[in-house]
Amino acid sequence: MTMNDADKSTERQALRAPRGTRDVISPEVERWQAVEGAARSTFARYGFREMRTPIFEDSNVFEKGTGESSDIVQKEMYRFRDLGGHDLTLRPEGTPPVVRAYLEHNLGQSRDVARFYYIGPMFRYERPQKGRYRQFHQIGAEAFGSESAAVDAEVIDMAMTWLTDLGVGPLSLQVNSVGDHDDRPAYLRKLTAAQADLLGEMSEESRKRHEINPLRVFDSKDPRDHAVIEKLPTIIDHLSDENRAHFDEVCGYLSDWGVEHTVEPRLVRGLDYYRRTVFEITSSALGAQDALLGGGRYDGLVAEMGGEDVPGVGFAAGLERIVLALPETEAAASIDCYVVTVARDLGPHALHLMRDLRATGLRCTADFQGRSMKAQMKAANRSGAPAVAILGPDELAKGVCTVKWMESGEQREVSLDGLADDLGAALVGRQNS
Ligand code: HAM
């Protein structure tokens, strides 16, 4: 390899997207837009408003919020010092930033239940695989201010409605309660004691978790831990009466509404802040990374991050995973009409015509490279536009153009003045047929 070749190959490597990140290009990007659009409209029906927070925060937002014992804080944060020496982290999840913003802007002042949703990129230094990325995107929702089981059930219902209406399937909803300060300390003592007897059978990772946060042993995917996990006491069997009643009420609402769910006593979720209800939605259309969405109640978090004792509950879904789980559909055309000119000097006329068409809401484009008509027709075909308007000098002189419908091959002259109406009517007709 010459020096030159080596240089070129480094250059080529340098120009790839970083490991664990991806570009989202049409037609995939239209699927993302459909998922986002459905979220916006479903969440609005439940009274949620959008919140946009910065992509990086002071690192202590996540240390305090996500929690020191979580994998995220322990080993997955994109943490850096900026040129001013500030300790910052690219957000690995959306909940702590929303809590930070809720406190910073005093959004709890009225004591009304405050409901927010967010859509945006998150960053975790994980081992990339299908459905798991280092930059991924979450659509999440958080509701602050009510302890009522009705709000837990409502956010779960909202998540299920959104995913079901989108056509993601088949879905499976697992729910559990992880208790709170009432019942958790006694349960944790019991759990730790049970784990201590089984340490010899546990994976190294689980032995570490046993030290830091024994609940997280339930999260282990290591086959060696399966038998151990089966033998451990579960929190759901050790709930206080109050927490048991809260959980039963959540499940009661879901059953009443026909939202199918399974109680999964070993579902604990990997973040430190959860109290009482936790839930996860998985899809069998995905492989190993089958969790589409996860969430739960986090009643201590707002106080932990410096606010009053405000309860909260929410969820976040992985946008990439939802798109992976969606059934393939034919991409809708993104252009209604492609304008082709017979001679190069007709460019200004094409521009003028397209401005008129666009003013009526039609989507149109043209080639503008001075290529042959044949090349332009091929480009029109590739664009997927259902109609092509062909402008030639003779037609222009008569104030008309030729419209060709690509699917049928049908071709006829249409007056330039009436073109927008004509195309509009024909396109509506096609949509309805
Ligand atoms: P989480 O379970 O860490 O929860 O993430 C939620 C969802 O984000 C997952 O179910 C998955 O679909 C997606 N996700 C997570 N990591 C990745 C990754 N590396 N690549 C692709 N997708 C990923 C939270 O983040 C909590 N903040 C949820 C929450 C909100 N709980 C209460 N409110």
Number of strands: 16
* Rg from Cα: 28 Å
The oligomeric state of the chains shown is single chain
Main sheet: which strands, in order across?
1-5-6-11-10-9-7-8
**Distance from first to last alpha carbon:** 61 Å
Query: Which class do the helix and strand fractions yield?
Result: alpha+beta
Number of helices: 16
What is the residue-mean pLDDT, rounded to a whole number?
93
Main β sheet profile = 8 strands, mixed
Low-confidence blocks of residues? none
Bound molecules: histidyl-adenosine monophosphate
- The residue fraction in helices comes out at 40-55%
Give the overall form: elongated
Q: Strand percentage, roughly?
A: 15-25%
What key phrases describe this protein's structure?
single chain, 433 residues, alpha+beta, eight-stranded mixed sheet, five-stranded mixed sheet, 16 helices, binds histidyl-adenosine monophosphate
Secondary structure layout:
Layout: H1 3-14, H2 28-45, E1 49-50, E2 56-58, H3 59-65, H4 71-76, E3 78-81, E4 87-90, H5 95-104, E5 114-123, E6 135-144, H6 149-166, E7 171-177, H7 184-198, H8 204-212, H9 223-231, H10 241-256, E8 262-263, E9 277-283, E10 291-297, H11 301-304, E11 312-318, H12 319-325, E12 337-341, H13 347-359, E13 364-366, H14 373-383, E14 387-391, H15 393-398, E15 400-405, E16 411-415, H16 419-432
Parallel strand pairs: 1-5, 7-8, 12-13, 12-14
Antiparallel strand pairs: 2-4, 3-4, 5-6, 6-11, 7-9, 9-10, 10-11, 14-15, 15-16
The protein binds histidyl-adenosine monophosphate.
